[in-house]
Amino acid sequence: MSEKKSDIAAVAQPTSPLAKLSNSGPFSIFCYCASSILMTLTNKYVVNGDFNLNFFLLAVQSTVCLLVISVLKSLGIITYREFNTLEARKWSPIAFLLVIMIYTSSKALAFLSIPVYTIFKNLTIILIAYGEVLWFGGRVTSMALGAFILMVLSSVVATYGDKNPATGASNLNIGYFWMFTNCFASATFVLCMRKRIKLTNFKDFDTMYYNNLLSIPILLIASFTLEDWSAENLVINFPAESRNAVIFAMVFSGASSVGISYCSGWCIRVTSSTTYSMVGALNKLPIALSGLVFFNAPVNFFSVSSIFIGFSAGIVYTVAKQKQKEQEANQLPK
């Protein structure tokens, strides 16, 4: 009788607040959105204005990210593979593509507003989708094609809304060049990494470890050979009145990349991959709006309309992918 009472008491014992939070779907979604927005805003804060040491910024971010995951591994919170020379050699091209992707991203952010950057980033989805058709035998449904048309439309509308007297036309053209380059670089990186992951069976923190470790020497060499390290340029990049804030933002953005990775896995674990995909689509709206609020991006009919068109495109694409998965699952033999 006493054993039954103890069992009932154990079952009735309330879950700790920390355990409740760790299994809370809404809280995981909030953390994922917050980490994504924080990293975008932090990067924009650093590269906004006259900052031109982009390779050095990326090297600092990669170093911080590597240090954070090393500490987390030593505490037993996460795990990833030990360094292997053969695997590193095979993964090197992926790290090089990563450097190109994040460098072009930082350059695009330097010349474009956050809303325009966010909207144009949708075009990467189109390139990845058709790349999967060519490389992995994927297919594009009519609903997904409709989403792509909305993505292109949102980008066209965004260009009409991107009229800021403080920004010259030549700077906008340079920004669009870096943005399109980033879309192609991002799609190439994602497709090549997916192919390499299939061959190596890497997990999330394995890819994070090798990507950051192998990209640091590339970024440092590029910074010291291609960027201006004169005393005058250092003063421009790290002005005395905001030096500490810029350095903190650089470090914080590196740490937040770990947060995004963790929150992504957490969100999928406590909700579902469908919910996670939908959150990714919905997340573009607050990121774009944050650019209007914090960085004085042009606010007009076209800029606001482009945000909502891009937001709708993300939702339509997420629903299209979910329906495609359901159709493929129904076609499988019972």
From TrEMBL:
Q: Which InterPro entries does this one have? A: EmrE-like, SCL35B1-4/HUT1, TPT_transporter
UniProt keywords (A-Z) are: Cytoplasmic vesicle, Endoplasmic reticulum, Golgi apparatus, Membrane, Sugar transport, Transmembrane, Transmembrane helix, Transport
Tell me the SUPFAM superfamilies matching this sequence: Multidrug resistance efflux transporter EmrE
Q: How does it sit in the membrane?
A: Multi-pass membrane protein
Which terms in the GO cellular component ontology are assigned? cytoplasmic vesicle membrane; endoplasmic reticulum membrane; Golgi membrane
Q: Where is the signal peptide?
A: none
Q: Which GO terms describe its biological process?
A: transmembrane transport
Q: Which PANTHER family match?
A: SOLUTE CARRIER FAMILY 35 (PTHR11132)
Oligomer and partners: Homooligomer.
Q: What is this protein called?
A: GDP-mannose transporter
| Organism this protein belongs to | Candida boidinii
Phylogenetic lineage? Eukaryota, Fungi, Dikarya, Ascomycota, Saccharomycotina
